Amino acid sequence: MITKEAEKSSRMPLLLSAFVYPGAGQFMQRRWIAAVFYATTFTVFIVMLLINVLRPMLHNLNVAVSWSGSSSDQALQPISIPSVLFPFLVALFFYIANLLDASYVARRRSRPKPPTIPTMLALLVCFGLKVAAADTNTEITSKAENLFRSVESRFDGIRNLSYTVEKTTRSDRRTVTEQWTMRYQQPDLLRIDYELPVPRQLIVNRHDMWEYIPAARKAMHTPLDKLTGEQRSAFMASVLGRVAVDGLRLGDYQGMLQRVVSVRPDGVDTNDCVVEGRDPKFIVEIDTARNVPLRTETYDNKGTLKVRTVASELAEIAAGFWFPKKLLATYGTENGYVESSIELTHVRLNEDFPADIFDFAPREGIAVVENTPPLNERNK
Questions:
Q1: What single DSSP character describes residue 154?
Q2: In this predicted structure, what is the pLDDT of residue 235?
């Protein structure tokens, strides 16, 4: 409810703006910017109006005086209606706006304060920006998802895959060379023959996993029959992680999609596309013509590089299936960076393996150690 005192005080700014000068009411309300704005705009257009009226009047007066004294060939200058009407209407507009503004603010201050028009406009602008940003982010995420899926979908139709890896890792302290051949057959048959640094075999079939070290004449047996489908998938993922070659695949990219901030071409006249994300930062560069990751970078929350891979010498192993022959991987450690040079040879796709290649029967004299598959709490 508005009291008489509040109603009286709310009229004063309106009276000042109406009968003293535009902006006076805003000045009383301590709204300095609004006061200067209305006073200045009204003054500018009133001055323009006076100039457009007085200039021809003074000219005509001067001509009339000249005619009375002697002959003169100067013509009278008419007053231009548009040049007078425009500043008059604009000045009138700001005069009325000044009254409405002073009255509105006075009434608003005398009542419980609802959201102001500028606040509402700001909220609408913020809402619009958020909607636009959400639409943009959705588009960017969709582009990134299509790129990531194109890389991973190459492996969907593979029946089997084999290749030999030679990996040389260099640090400040030493150089280590590893070499192994991997053979994989859908859905869950795996054989890895290590040559360096120590010869050994790892064989996974539908019933068992065998790890055999010839030099020690020992084999570890892990039965897999009692594993559920989910447990077996988790177990196979842990086994494949031992020989995973960083940079060949993106793996589970769903986590990256939630952090994507940009998708852009890498230069002009190129098929390469760069996807960047943050929190933490990552970069993936993809050859969109061959659907091969050319460069990957992952960082920790402090912005320190964890892993960088660069692929080179791409070869078409089968129709439409490209594979890098070389990879350079850089790993960030507590003691600095470690670099691994990886060379992939004898890459074979969908070529049949011998029927018994995923079987293992320990020969006489080989000690067999029984083992239980390590399962995390989620899969127990």
A1: G
A2: 79
Q: Count of alpha carbons within 13 Å of 177, Cβ hemisphere only? A: 5
Residue 166 near residue 177, CB atoms below 8 Å: yes
Number of neighbouring beta carbons within 10 Å of residue 89: 11
Q: Who contacts 363 (Cβ-Cβ below 8 Å, separation ≥6)? A: none
Q: What is the pLDDT of residue 377?
A: 41
Q: Give the DSSP H/E element, type plus range, for residue 202.
A: strand 200-204
Pairwise CA distance, residues 160 & 317, whole Å: 13
* Assigned CATH class of 144-379: mainly beta
DSSP state of 279: T
Structure tokens at 187: 């859905």
What are 97-143's pLDDT values in tens digits?
Answer: 888 888 888 877 766 555 666 666 676 666 666 666 665 678 888 88
Judge contact between 306 and 180, C-beta under 8 A.
no
Residue 66: how many CA atoms within 13 Å on its side-chain side? Answer: 12
CA angle, 155 then 325 then 310, to 5°: 90
Neighbours of 125 (CB within 10 A): 10
Of 48-52, 81-85, 243-247, 338-342, give the lowest mean pLDDT range. Answer: 81-85
Q: What is the pLDDT of residues 29-53, one digit of tens each?
A: 888 888 888 889 888 888 888 888 8
Q: Which of 312, 340, 316 is nearest to 326 (CA)?
A: 312
Give how far the C-alpha of residue 171 lies from the chain's centroid of Cα atoms, to the nearest Å: 34
More confident residue, 33 or 64: 33
- pLDDT per residue as tens digits for the range 165-213: 999 998 878 899 999 999 998 878 899 999 999 999 999 988 889 999 9
Strand partners, 326: 312, 343
Q: Which has the closest alpha carbon to 204: 367, 15, 358, 10?
A: 358
| Rounded distance between C-alpha atoms, residue 47 and residue 186, angstroms | 87
Rounded CA-CA distance 288/144 in Å is 12
Nearest to 256 by CA among 291, 282, 294, 286: 282
Helices 81-109 + 4-15 axis angle, to 10: 160
| Residue 236 C-alpha from the chain's centroid | 32
